[in-house]
Amino acid sequence: MPKRVLQGSVVSDKTDKTVVVLVERRFTHPVLKKTVRRTKKYQAHDEGNVHKIGDIVSIEESKPISKNKRWVVVETAEADGK
Known about the structure:
Blueprint: E1 5-12, E2 18-28, E3 35-45, E4 56-61, E5 71-77
Parallel strand pairs: 3-5
Antiparallel strand pairs: 1-2, 1-4, 2-3, 4-5
GO cellular component, one term: ribosome
Function: One of the primary rRNA binding proteins, it binds specifically to the 5'-end of 16S ribosomal RNA.
Organism: Kaistia dalseonensis
């Protein structure tokens, strides 16, 4: 089974070797037929502390690293305007 890969923006980098990534998904509501945005925060492992707030990153599923960390940062996408 392939590992899931999500893309989102870093909203916190305060903890050591960890970043919090905000991932947004959009879908059409089944009854209202309106586009709805839902967000979720994931804690991802960042070996080397290279990612900062505002960076657009891709995260990949992994085995549990700590109590809350099950994702690893795999690459950084260029943010718009930078």
